[in-house]
Q: What sequence folds into this?
């Protein structure tokens, strides 16, 4: 089946892409929403412009759509770009990286129903620790590009999701009820390498910004 991937560059959307292809589907295009609102209800924002590099090493066409990121209104922009992808690439389905957000999943499903597209959520309700372990086992190299909850701070930016990360996340779950996969908005991630990439992306430089427990990392890649 020809699939368009709702693509943020983070661990969930990239892993969903991997699973879709592994199941025999064709990744026909990547669909990225660039939101002006850093606190968008629907869309990932840290380092979102760098998805172009990921699309390049995946050798898959990328369609982008800007949005102001206003709650509910941003869905009109999402529908617009999915409709464009269907027309341009003849996609038959949309793949998302939704894991626990019923808000996100239900709204994407509604758009797909309207446009007569199937909607696949291969990570839906997957145990968060199992998901992190699967990512490591499948050779995904992922870094943290944003943190938004106590006690996470700027020291977490740039950290790779590995065995030590999982151990530290386990402590945070027990002590602070932090979701280990960031499903509560606690953190955002970016994939530097995975089996879908023709080569690993390297960070040339980065800039961090924020205060207290809200920090972002913008990266330049080679």
A:
């Amino acid at each position: 089946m020809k699939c368009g991937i709702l693509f943020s560059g983070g661990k969930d959307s990239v892993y969903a892409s991997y699973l879709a292809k592994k199941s025999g589907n064709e990744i026909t295009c990547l669909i990225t929403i660039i939101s002006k609102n850093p606190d968008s209800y629907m869309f990932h924002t840290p380092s979102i412009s760098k998805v172009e590099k990921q699309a390049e090493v995946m050798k898959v066409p990328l369609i982008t759509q800007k949005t102001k990121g206003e709650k509910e209104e941003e869905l009109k922009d999402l529908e617009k770009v999915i409709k464009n992808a269907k027309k341009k690439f003849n996609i038959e389905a949309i793949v998302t990286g939704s894991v626990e957000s019923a808000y996100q999943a239900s709204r994407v499903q509604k758009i797909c129903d309207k446009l007569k597209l199937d909607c696949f959520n291969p990570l839906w309700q997957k145990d968060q620790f199992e998901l992190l372990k699967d990512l490591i086992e499948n050779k995904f190299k992922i870094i943290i590009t944003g943190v938004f909850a106590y006690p996470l701070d700027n020291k977490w930016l740039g950290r790779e999701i590995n065995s030590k990360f999982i151990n530290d996340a386990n402590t945070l779950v027990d002590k602070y009820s932090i979701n280990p996969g960031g499903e509560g908005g606690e953190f955002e991630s970016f994939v530097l390498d995975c089996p879908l990439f023709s080569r690993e992306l390297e960070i040339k430089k980065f800039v961090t910004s924020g205060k207290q427990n809200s920090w972002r990392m913008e990266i330049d890649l080679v």
The chain is about 35% helix and 25% strand. The mean pLDDT is 93. The first helix runs from residue 11 to 22. The CA atoms of residues 148 and 185 lie 7 Å apart.
